[in-house]
Structures are given as C-alpha cells and as structure tokens.
C-alpha cells in the first residue's frame, strides 16, 4: 500500500470532498457519492443536523476529557464506525483494505460491505490483531438463497467479525455493472439482474430477521430503520441494535432525515438495545448532537470515501481524525468531559429548557 502525500489545505471534510471530486471520474463519483432522485433526502440529512443548536455549559471541569464508550459490550475509544460502502476500489486501489487500516489506526470501527471488492477474510486479517481498533462488523444484503446467507455468516464468524449488520432499507436496488477488473469475492457469481417483481418477492421480512438471529452467535444489527414502530419490532424479533439510516439518501428520495426521527426511535427502543445513526454527519459537533439525542454511536460513509479517493488510506485517516478532534473540541466547549455527561445533561437546545 503506497503512502501518498496529503493535500496541504485539508481543514474540514468539505476540503476532502472537493479533492475527491477532482480525483474521481464522473461515473465513479456518481456511484459512490451520488443520491437518489433529486437529492432531497441527502440535502435534508445535512440540513437536519445543522438545524439542531447546541447549548454550552461553562466552568465545568474538563480534566481528563475523553470520548470512550461501550457498544455491544465492547469498549471503543470514540463512538464512530465507517459505514458499509460497496466497491471502494472504484475510489482508490487501496479500497476496503485502506479504509479498514485507516479506521483501525484512528481507533474507529468499520462495517465491511457484502459488496466489497476484497474478501472478508483479507480485511479481517489486516486489522483484527490491532489492539486499539474499533469494532469490525460485516454488513449483509439479504440473498434469496438462504444457503448463501448462511455461508456468509459462517465465514464472518470464522474470520473474526464481531457483529452482522442486516441492511433492510434497500430491498430493491438499481442495477450497476462493475468495471473490468473489479469483483465481489464475498458473493457467488451473479446470474444476472433480477426483475422488479422478483426483487419484491425475495425481499427480507421479519421472518428473515428472526431466522438470521437464530443462525448466528454474533449480534445482529438492523440498519435502515426510520420508524419508531420498526425499531421496537426489530428489537422484539432479536436485533441487538438498530441503525437509524436512510441509506444516505441513495434509495428513497424524500425519505425523512435521520436526525429528525432519531429521538423517537431512541424513545421507542427504551434502552433495550443501542441505537446508532448515520446520514449527513459532517462535523464533530454533529456527532455530539447525535449522542445528545440518544445515539450510542454514529456511522459515516462518504467522508471516508472522500479521503480514500484523493490520498488512499492516509486520506481516510485524516478525515476520521478531523471528526475526532472536532468532537473533542465540541465536548469541551459544551462543558462535557465525557459521554456520560453528554447523556445525563444533553447539550442540545430546546425552547422548553
């Protein structure tokens, strides 16, 4: 893996985005960073975080400020995972290995996509012995053949993944043809694109979630929840955690922003399982807002891809470090020395406070 020099003007994730757009050809940019329809949900995700105001407290003790948390029984240095993104080698030859190693170096977690261009065993081998890394999870798109699903589960268990993330908000996906030289080593060869009726008929239901929970020793996390009733049902059916997500605005345009529904999902789950959130988080202050609204951790996808696109693994590490530093600064300025304080006295403004 080559070490590339970073651009000298990277002060925010917006700078990473600008350099990534210049580095990627239009087709790769469209696939990795595009949005569905008119991009309403993608824009609304961002606007929803921006609309939440922080309410600082002053003269609070800040010695020993730290961002440590626990997620599914595992200690983490800070509450962030890189979201699953397919075909990362479209952005850079380092691909999933680059993002995995950068995440580990920054003590963040990673969720590897089913549609990774690198075998799950290779990704796990690259980082699993790193004592400081965050959680390593494997994302599942449901397959019509349960035998394929079970095979993926067994491989993930055997090579050291710590949880399975079942993505449920994309039962119908537009076709995408890989450029020559890229493959999906975690899946058998495709027999061709299925039609709409077939996709609908084979889409997962609550029964598939229960089946999956009963077929693995790993915790199952349900990703793609936007309705409080679905969150409650997922936990009742065996989910160990839920992720509030609208797929970054890449599936249903016009879907509600994740920040908007996060508090209702947290309330519905009622502490029975952790709630995570993704979609539009671009600043450390956004992470603080998410935690203050009840999320246990957050996920980011596009920011990691931006760093990867222009500078490989070192670009990813820089993007993640920006978020971590900004989170610590936002906590200090809000008088929160640790995440327990964030949760006990959420520093988000409400007119009723």
UniProtKB/TrEMBL annotation:
Keywords: Flavoprotein, FMN, Oxidoreductase. Pfam families: FMN_dh (PF01070). Glyoxylate binds at residues 31, 141, 167, 247, 250. Residues 5-352 form the FMN hydroxy acid dehydrogenase domain. FMN binds at residues 84-86, 113, 139, 223, 245, 278-282, 301-302. InterPro entries: Aldolase_TIM, Alpha-hydoxy_acid_DH_FMN, FMN-dep_DH, FMN_HAD. One of its GO terms (molecular function) is oxidoreductase activity. Gene3D superfamilies: Aldolase class I. Its cofactor is FMN. The active site is at residue 247. Belongs to the FMN-dependent alpha-hydroxy acid dehydrogenase family. This is Alpha-hydroxy-acid oxidizing protein.
């Amino acid at each position: 893996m080559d070490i590339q020099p970073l651009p000298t003007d990277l002060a925010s994730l917006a700078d990473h985005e600008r350099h990534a757009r210049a580095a990627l050809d239009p087709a790769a940019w469209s696939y990795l960073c595009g949005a569905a329809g008119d991009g309403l949900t993608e824009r609304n995700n961002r606007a929803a975080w921006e609309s939440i105001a922080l309410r600082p407290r002053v003269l609070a003790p800040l010695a020993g400020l730290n961002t440590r948390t626990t997620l599914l029984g595992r200690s983490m240095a800070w509450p962030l995972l890189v979201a699953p993104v397919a075909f990362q080698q479209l952005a850079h030859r380092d691909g999933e290995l680059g993002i995995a190693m950068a995440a580990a170096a920054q003590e963040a977690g990673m969720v590897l996509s089913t549609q990774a261009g690198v075998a799950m065993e290779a990704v796990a081998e690259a980082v699993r012995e790193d004592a400081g890394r965050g959680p390593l999870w494997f994302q599942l798109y449901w397959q019509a053949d349960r035998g394929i699903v079970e095979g993926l589960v067994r491989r993930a268990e055997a090579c050291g993944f710590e949880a399975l993330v079942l993505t449920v908000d994309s039962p119908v996906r537009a076709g995408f043809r890989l450029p020559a030289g890229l493959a999906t080593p975690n899946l058998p060869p495709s027999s061709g694109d299925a039609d709409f009726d077939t996709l609908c008929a084979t889409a997962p239901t609550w029964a598939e979630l229960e089946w999956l929970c009963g077929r693995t020793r790993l915790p199952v996390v349900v990703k793609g929840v936007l309705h409080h009733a679905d969150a409650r049902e997922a936990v009742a059916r065996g989910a160990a955690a839920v992720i509030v997500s609208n797929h970054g605005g890449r599936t249903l345009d016009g879907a509600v922003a994740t920040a908007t529904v996060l508090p209702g999902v947290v309330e519905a789950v009622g502490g029975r399982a952790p709630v995570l959130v993704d979609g539009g988080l671009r600043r450390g202050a956004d992470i603080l807002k998410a935690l203050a609204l009840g999320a246990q951790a957050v996920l980011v996808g596009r920011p990691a891809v931006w760093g990867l696109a222009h500078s490989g693994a070192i670009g990813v590490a820089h993007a993640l470090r920006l978020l971590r530093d900004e989170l610590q600064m936002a906590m200090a300025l809000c008088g929160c020395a640790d995440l327990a304080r964030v949760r006990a006295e959420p520093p988000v403004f409400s007119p009723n406070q």
